[in-house]
Each structure stands twice: as C-alpha cells, then as structure tokens.
C-alpha cells in the first residue's frame, strides 16, 4: 500500500510517499518559504505553497518512481498550523482523493513528527519531547493491538500531554531572539553556532512548574540585555539556549519518572540541536532509558511523516468524516482519536 502525504502547516510545502509493503519512505520532497526580516506571514507562505505545490508533487512521484494512479491513500496535515497554509495542502489532498477515488486521511502534525521519529528509531512505546516553533510538549501514547501494521502493535491515540509550554514554543523563543539580534534566517541554527562561541553563563529567568515550562520571561530578560555594557551577545545566546534546554530536561525527566517509560525520543525542528540532544541523552542514560533522535528529514517539516502517519491512521480505521474534515488550526495532539 502506498500512502502520499501533504505537509503545509507553516513555512514548508512537503510531499512524501510511504510504502507499507517495503516499510520504507520512497520520497520526501519539499519547497521552503523564506520570510526575511519578519515572522511567517500566513498569506505569503500560502501563496508560496500554491505556486510550488505541483512542482513538489511531481518531484516526489518521480523519485518514488510511481504515478498518482498507484497511490492508495492521500493524507494531509489537518493542523495545528496557519490557516491559509493548511488550506493549500488540504485542497491538494482533497482534490486528488476525489479524482482518484481513494481515501483521504487527516493527520495531526505533532502526531506525525512523533510517529515518524518512533518508526525511524524503531522504538516501541516512547515518551516524546516534541519541540518546534509553535509547539513544545511532552507526550505519551499507548500501544494498540487492533489494526497492527507488520505484525506489530501500533503506537496510537489517546495521547496525553504530560507537560507543555505555558506561553511560547521553544523554537519561537529562538526565532524571536535571533531577529532581535539582527539575524536574518535559519534562526535556530545561527543561534546554536553563536551559542557554541559563548563562554560565560549570564543569569536568566528559569521557569518550570511541575512538568510545564515557560519561555516568555526568558525571552524578555535576554532581549533587554542585548547591547548592555559588558554583555557579550554570544554569551547571551549560550545562556538563553542553556536555560531553555535545562527547563526541557528537568520537565522531561520528571515525566519519564512518572510515566516509567523506557524510551525517550525528541522530535520537531529544535530536535536538530546537538546541545539539546546531548543533555537529553545524558539525562536518559542516568535513568537507564534509551534515548533517540530521528534522521533530520523527519524533524524538519516534511510530507513523509504525514504519509507514514496517514497509513497508520488508515489501518486504525480513520479517514475523513463529518467530524474529522477540513483544517483545524488549533488541533491538539490530545484531541486525536
Ligand atoms: Fe513541525
């Protein structure tokens, strides 16, 4: 069975193809909207997706060496995300499912990051730290016998959010701070490079409440210190990241001990940060827990994770319905069925 997935929640328009017979990703293509000097403007990003969508779809089919007629399931990211962007992926998937008379499967973007990472890492039932621009959550799921794939149980809903940001996502923290420093693009990686040059820790607000955490006080305090006498901006980058990552580690460790999970994965755009992965790995090893981070292609926004998760949900009997259709900008992972 071949599943084709559309990702269009924010800056990326991605098309991926997953083949369940070989249990492999056949292709994972994307086009990326670059917003210079401003955050993502939803309308502009959606225009970019509409202009580039057909090209990305053609590239994905060519690399997978299949035609649209060979696709068995069309899936799309239903949310959470930016409304105008979500609609581009939905329109494409809906049109193709009708014209090719194939099922349409709505997929939750956060579920897809976690499922693709779990699949790539060959984990069974991990605790997931999901870190991206708009979302930062600690998620647990359960194993479902029904609808197994490849003779194995499926990691499935209901998902529980054991902890989450009380204000902004950790990626949003880094993007906003980097723009305040005058950086143009790829904010997280630029900040990480500057943080590596930082040597001195500057005291900044640290907010963890149980398994929840917050970053806006940290952002405000760090931004106020930019250009202050005696403050080196690389030290500031180092201190900002160090504080944010320590918050995430403390909350994730608490959730690990509570849930008694034996595997921990980190997924989402910020999971590409080596410093964060190093801290989580050390914390997991201290607790005798297996740690993993998937191939970067699954941490960046991509269509293959939507395709893989579309397949999993289809096997569980999920497809478009009166209750589950269109787009949902604020669709939480703990609302997924
Ligand atoms: Fe994402």
Write the layout of secondary structure elements.
Layout: E1 2-7, E2 12-19, E3 24-32, H1 42-64, E4 73-79, H2 83-99, E5 104-108, H3 109-121, E6 127-131, E7 136-149, E8 152-164, H4 170-180, H5 187-197, E9 207-209, E10 212-214, H6 216-224, H7 233-259, E11 263-267, H8 274-286, E12 290-293, H9 296-299, H10 303-315
Parallel strand pairs: 1-4, 4-5, 6-11, 11-12
Antiparallel strand pairs: 1-2, 2-3, 6-7, 7-8, 9-10
Shape: globular
Beta strand % = 15-25%
Q: Give the beta-strand count.
A: 12
The H/E string reads: EEEHEHEHEEEHHEEHHEHEHH
What is the SS-derived class? alpha/beta
Q: Catalogue the unreliable spans.
A: none
Rounded to an integer in angstroms, the radius of gyration calculated over CA atoms is 20 Å
Distance between the termini: 22 Å
Descriptive notes:
- With 337 residues, this protein is α/β, with parallel strands linked by helices.
- The protein is built from ten helices and twelve strands.
- The chain has helices at residues 42-64, 83-99, 109-121, 170-180, 187-197, 216-224, 233-259, 274-286, 296-299, 303-315, and strands at 2-7, 12-19, 24-32, 73-79, 104-108, 127-131, 136-149, 152-164, 207-209, 212-214, 263-267, 290-293.
- The strands form three sheets. The chain has a five-stranded mixed beta sheet, sandwiched between helices. A five-stranded mixed beta sheet has the order 8-7-6-11-12, sandwiched between helices.
- Helix 5 packs across helix 7 (233-259).
- It is globular, with a radius of gyration of 20 Å.
- The mean pLDDT is 95.
- The site of fe (ii) ion has 6 residues, from helix 3.
